[in-house]
């Protein structure tokens, strides 16, 4: 992970910039050929996490054929190891809410029947961001082969729609020459689709 924070490009800008570049080149995840049964959605087989939002798009844009991602420690827990010289990919988590002890009108903690303080969910005044570095299964030695389950094929525009629905991120083409990621709404804002050339003419209408 870079140590010079001043020169480090913010995570959301990296996503937006790479997405624009891949859209122009026709290499965005949903623009690539997709074989029946080929798994594409990034996930963590150790924690069971299915990456969503910007993290799912960011990992999918890394061009890896294997959708499995995990941290260095998680790989070690499987008696596997990250190959020497490999560089991880950063994912980011935004914490908008937190659980705190519930109190009464006098500020005293409310104790539940189990003798433990009751908790309530509150919205944080300032969202907190956490980062993690994950490695693709192709960068790790000692993992079992990826199990591919056969699925029926679907049309190109249906693939695009499914990817965007699964990642749970909204992509808005509502900018002139700007691109940014909004953590509050988990949405990416990009320039108008007309600025992107693609071999698939239906792409412009199918990913909106």
Automatic annotation (TrEMBL):
InterPro entries, per the entry: ArdC_N, MPTase-PolyVal
Q: Which residues cross the membrane?
A: none
One example of the protein's molecular function in GO is: single-stranded DNA binding
Q: Residue ranges of the Polyvalent protein metallopeptidase domain?
A: 158-200
All copies of the N-terminal domain together span 11-110
Q: What's the short name of a Pfam family annotated to this entry?
A: ArdcN
Q: What is this protein called?
A: DUF1738 domain-containing protein
Task: Name the source organism.
Answer: Parashewanella curva
């Amino acid at each position: 992970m870079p140590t010079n924070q001043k020169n480090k490009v913010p995570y959301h800008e990296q996503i937006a910039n790479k997405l624009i570049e891949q859209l122009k080149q026709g290499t965005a995840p949903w623009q690539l050929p997709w074989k029946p049964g080929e798994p594409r959605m990034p996930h963590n087989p150790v924690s069971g996490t299915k990456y969503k939002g910007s993290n799912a798009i960011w990992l999918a844009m890394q061009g890896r054929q294997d959708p499995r991602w995990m941290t260095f420690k998680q790989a070690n827990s499987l008696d596997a190891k990250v190959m020497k010289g490999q560089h991880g990919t950063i994912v980011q988590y935004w914490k908008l809410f937190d659980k705190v002890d519930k109190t009464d009108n006098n500020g005293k903690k409310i104790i539940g029947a189990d003798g433990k303080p009751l908790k309530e969910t509150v919205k944080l005044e300032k969202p907190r961001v956490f980062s993690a570095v994950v490695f693709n299964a192709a960068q790790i030695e000692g993992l079992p082969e990826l199990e591919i389950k056969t699925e029926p094929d679907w049309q190109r525009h249906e693939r695009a729609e499914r990817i965007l629905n699964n990642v749970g991120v909204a992509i808005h083409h509502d900018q002139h020459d700007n691109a940014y990621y909004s953590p509050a709404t988990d949405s990416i804002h990009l320039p108008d689709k007309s600025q992107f050339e693609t071999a698939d003419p239906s792409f412009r209408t199918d990913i909106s």
